[in-house]
Amino acid sequence: MLAAAGLLGAAVASGLTVSELGLGRDRVRAGLRLGAGAAAPVVAAYGVGLLVPAARPLLDDQRVAGLDGRQLAYQVLVRIPAGTVVWEEIAFRGVLQASLRRVLPEPWAGFVGASVFGLWHIRPTAGALAVNGLAPGRPARILAVTGVVAGTAGAGALLSVLRERSGSLVAPVLLHLAANCTGALAAALARRLSPG
């Protein structure tokens, strides 16, 4: 949170306005409405994945496997929201998007922002592949990381559209929370529902 506050402070000091950063109070309600509408299908998809036994292996994630209830609660209620979602939304859909819009025309500003967001996920993707024993071998790992980076860039473009349409960071934050927090919960529940 300190990094996010510092980034916002630097952005405001450089002349970006609260509205440009997606933090205007007048747009919160629009952000809630659009964000909740975008998040609902994500939560529903994870729910379906849990209800269909054949789909549960797709939810498996070794990063969640060994967590007890307290550790899972910490991940879902503190680390993911504050350490990942809020930080990334302030950095990418807030500061970076507002800065790019000052120097690049659309659609280039959106394309560059989404691409940077995708590239930001190279390291965590490589780590997740290793922990979960996926994509053994260098060529398979490179292909998997490239695919995830492209998908994450696409997700970044969608988050940027939500930010633009609502005028608020609330909308992309809600969708990002739904994807990351519900994903962790679904992985933990899938393991408990399908022992062995």
User: Kindly, what is the distance between the CA atoms of the first and last residues, rounded to a whole number of angstroms?
Assistant: 38 Å
SSE order, one letter for each helix or strand: HHHHHHHH
Show unreliable segments: none
Question: Level of helix content?
Answer: over 70%
Radius of gyration: 18 Å
User: How many DSSP E strands?
Assistant: 0
Structural class based on helices, strands and sheet pairing: mainly alpha
Quick check: average pLDDT? 94
Percent in strands: under 5%
User: What does the oligomeric state look like here?
Assistant: single chain
**Any idea what the shape is?**
globular
* Tally of individual helices: 8
Q: In this structure, how is the largest beta sheet organized?
A: none
Number of domains: 1
Q: In brief, what are we looking at here?
A:
The protein is mainly α. It has helices spanning 2-13, 28-51, 62-65, 69-103, 108-120, 122-131, 138-166, 170-193.
What does this 3D model show about the protein?
With 196 residues, this protein is mainly alpha-helical. The protein has one domain. Helix content is 77%, strand content 0%. It is built from 8 helices and no strands. The protein has helices at 2-13, 28-51, 62-65, 69-103, 108-120, 122-131, 138-166, 170-193. Helix 4 runs antiparallel to helix 5 (108-120), helix 5 crosses helix 7 (138-166) and helix 6 (122-131) packs across helix 7 (138-166). The longest helix is centred in the middle third of the chain and has 35 residues, at 69-103. The mean pLDDT is 94.
